Amino acid sequence: MRIDVITIFPEMIANAVEYSTVKRAQENGLLEIVVHNLRDFAHNQHRSVDDYCYGGGAGMLMKPEPLFEAVKSISSVVGDTKIILLSPQGKLLTQDMARRLSLVDHLILICGRYKGVDERVRQNLITDEISIGDYVLSGGEIPALALIDAVSRLIPGVLGDYESAQDDSFSEGILDCPHYTRPAEYQGMRVPEVLLSGDHKRIREWQRQQALICTYHKRPDLLRSVPLSEEDLEFLKTLKEGD
Ligand code: 9WO
């Protein structure tokens, strides 16, 4: 997969992709990230990429020409390309969406700044608009990094067998169960006995029930959109009766 990022703060992206899984994906040749400074596509001596709004009002907007030209300069011979604007008005990024994006050959991420982009960019340049949550940031760079992180770890071959086999939060659509490491007792706080028992069937059962309890209390909305076994449903019924 190739990901191009268009931003006025290229170092913000370039520095952050030097870590962890995203770095490994690049080293293994499974992911190529290319960062572009939007100012390189500015038309005047001051390298301006923003301008006042028609109709007045506070704040500046990103001018259309540099954005159109930056995208045009990125040779899209790679195949299937999505041009994504990170913005609070976008569709909420979910694990499902990240999974679908990880199958695309080429992503071009546009990081908004100021008050946002000229509407002609939204209407005629971008193919998808994505939000990472309902809060306002000062720009699209951090959301772009969140998207890159979520997507790159799903590219086939990026995670080892061990890591991908891990049932992390959301991999099955529900929250993860609690985990413990040594010592078995710390300041009187004990690790649940079942985890020390060596009885793998009982452990598996306990972990599933804990995950259901956790999801039921913290994110009950997730339980409506996930396949549950007969046993899961039976257990959830006992939880509801306890309320
Ligand atoms: C700035 C501003 C200045 C004066 C008056 C009104 C104003 N609105 C904004 C504004 O909303 N700026 C946004 C900053 C424009 C697009 C890029 N920015 C952004 C992206 N903030 N938050 C996001 C974002 C993106 C994806 N997911 C969550 C948040």
| Rg, Å, rounded | 23 Å
Beta-strand content estimate: 15-25%
CATH T-level topology of the largest domain? Alpha/beta knot
Question: Superfamily at the CATH H level of the largest domain?
Answer: SPOUT methyltransferase, trefoil knot domain
- Residue ranges: pLDDT <50 for 5 or more in a row? none
**What is the oligomer described by this structure?**
single chain
Q: In total, how many beta strands?
A: 9
User: Mind describing the biggest β-sheet?
Assistant: 5 strands, parallel
Helical segment count = 10
Structural class: alpha/beta
- Ends apart, CA distance between termini: 48 Å
**Second rung of CATH, namely the architecture of the largest domain:** 3-Layer(aba) Sandwich
Into how many domains do the coordinates divide? Answer: 2
Main CATH class of the largest domain: Alpha Beta
Helix content: 25-40%
Question: What's the SSE blueprint?
Answer:
Elements: E1 2-7, H1 10-16, H2 20-27, E2 32-37, E3 50-52, E4 60-62, H3 64-73, E5 81-92, H4 95-101, E6 106-111, H5 119-124, E7 128-131, H6 141-152, H7 161-165, E8 185-186, E9 189-190, H8 193-196, H9 200-218, H10 230-242
Parallel strand pairs: 1-2, 1-6, 5-6, 5-7
Antiparallel strand pairs: 3-4, 8-9
Helix pairs in contact: 9-10
The structure holds ligand 9WO.
